[in-house]
């Protein structure tokens, strides 16, 4: 399961101390878990929260008095909801643990050990999502079975379901073929009874093989007999199926004269599975093969490997040979790839210039070896395309498919993530994700990224994009938010979520902040020379609050370049200010002497966000983007946004709404009195400051 801002944990904290509850929320966020917390102060409020709002986890202090543990368990049990309860304890002893488990608690967390709280909450959330997914899948399966049943009934193909050799289901076409009037006439009848006597012995062997779990043949030719005793040549097509929860065989039985020439049908099917430019498998066929491989892995614990492959600098290669030669280039790459894989490996054209390889019965070492052999096969070879000789290198992202990752979307996502990561650090390399050997792969990936980030800081390889903040009330003014990107060696842009977590782990956020702030001041100066008074908003991180030299650096840059400090606006996440309040206060006081303003972003996700403003005098608040989700139709989010706007106006703070996606949201923001809006609905982020504010 992925944790991030787009997947927020709805956490209900029952604790008499608001400070202790806020500390837990901050600790979870620092661990990468986005939290939407609520804290009831009495039983009625607790009852209202679990009835009126969806919740994910309840975290209750063992000694809570406002809402006691016994009342929490009673009300959660009475709600009938799958709402896990975790108990915060100061220490664990055997008797107390058994008592809590007997009362219905899903687990306990040690209050004084934040890492333990993080792990327990994370594990319980994963389990909850798994249960929810299972229930959704069950409902989907019931609906799919219902639709399949209707389709089978209306199908012109004669179809029957066979369990242990007996008919348990047959459609109208099947009954008519053999002369039965209703299913009751055939229910429980052996399939053998519909096979001509001279073919029975042969057919018994087939049924015996199937009973041993052997895979059925895709086609089986025999001779069938009707209820009236008429014989006709028939072809049976088998497929594994389930019916009302029972494993069974689906049989499609056709008269021989109704069957196409098998060789022609086989050739037609083969052509449907191929990409016409490369002769490789097409995407749809490959995905079916991948689903089968994943199913086999889940059932039999076999190991498979998936590789996603792209040629490096593809756009540059096309420029060399001409855009009209794109198919020739892709075909040449496919031919080289086909010659470099093993005879049992499946190769497909997976995108415009992306390829995929599925290697069966391959452990991590074998999959890694294949990826490296493919990389070197291209790096050491000249590709011929449209009378051009090209030296092509590959970026490869892969996944070792095993018991710990048997979900096709997750596998493709990890492979794509690895592919983008290799592209971002220059290409000509392979990155393989192995869930059972994550540490080894992670060390190599992180080391490459740390080097890449350090190079970007030293050589100005970061890029800033700009998104306008549109005033909803009052006179228009030029104001943009700066958004950081990293320029890859192939010219593509790497999104910050790819590299910022690694930068944070390795203490590089402070250096990145300094680069961004310095560049922002330079840009303001450049705009001033063009007679534009442009205000830029810059994100800074917790690391900058602990860097005493940054304040002095900002002052020096403003003075040297002659920039009005009021044109530089800094923003810090609400949760980081809460956990570094003294540092944030000192930083704000330091930059205020230059006219620089500091505000809060990701505002509103704390337990009592406006309480923080009594200790930190933010110039503005930027409402967390989670409140913008379905704002036009969500009464809950609309109410919260109006509360934020009203309270901010009372305190004299400006408000900003980000991630605005539709006209309905704009209407709500305008009527609520929000000061600024930004988002793709108004203008996407881009490399130029060219929005028409007037």
Strand percentage lies at: 15-25%
What is the class of the largest domain in the CATH system?
Alpha Beta
Residue runs with pLDDT of under 50 for 5 or more positions? 1-6
Shape: globular
Sheet of most strands = 10 strands, mixed
Question: Could you say how many structural domains there are in total?
Answer: 4
Mean pLDDT: 87
Keywords: Coiled coil
Pfam family, one: GGDEF
Protein name: EAL domain-containing protein
Describe the structure.
The structure is a single chain. The longest helix is centred in the N-terminal third of the chain and has 41 residues, at 114-154. Helices cover 44% and strands 21% of the residues. The protein folds into four domains: 9-135, Rossmann fold, CATH 3.40.50.2300; 155-259, PAS domain (Beta-Lactamase); 281-436, Reverse transcriptase/Diguanylate cyclase domain (Alpha-Beta Plaits); 453-677, EAL domain (TIM Barrel). The protein has 23 helices and 27 strands. The model is unreliable at 1-6 (pLDDT under 50). Strands 18, 19, 20, 21, 22, 23, 24, 25, 26 and 27 form a ten-stranded mixed beta sheet that branches. The chain has a five-stranded parallel beta sheet with strand order 2-1-3-4-5, with helices on both faces. By secondary structure, the chain is an alpha/beta fold. The chain is globular, with a radius of gyration of 32 Å.
